[in-house]
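Record 1 of the preview.
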Amino acid sequence: MTISTTKNRVDYIGGGGENTFPYTFRIFNDEDLKVYVATVLQTLGVDYTVTGAGDDTGGNVVFATAPTALAAVAIVRELEIIQETDYTEGDKFPAETHEAALDKLTMLIQQMAYAITQTTPATSNTDYLGKLAADPVTGAWGAAEGGRWWYNTTDHQFKGWNGTDIILLG
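->
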């Protein structure tokens, strides 16, 4: 297989009734996903299940109870940083095993690149497009680029940025 996407995270806003959320990248095992709802890490097998482990196109996270309306949902691929591939001297070259090890290395590089480029953890405020940025006035996390809205978890208000000013929404 090859890794044809740089994504290792998808973000959603809960609608109050939807309990299935797709992820669009490969994972090896169900445990490779960390799922957050309103900044709280959920428990695999209790709060949610995963489909599509091993599929190149991803699968779904299915919640036992749908996230509440406007709750930020973050689905993040987070692999354990270990090397499990072992070659036996003199054996035939295991191409599939080797390729899977290269895929894992690529995913780990993506994971580290994401960690380096983000100044906040995966549980940060997220705007409706899943982009992170600092509130241009308060410096609190959750603002989006100009012309977008966000939910600020510091003061628990929806705000908008019109390119000049921060405005309260609703």
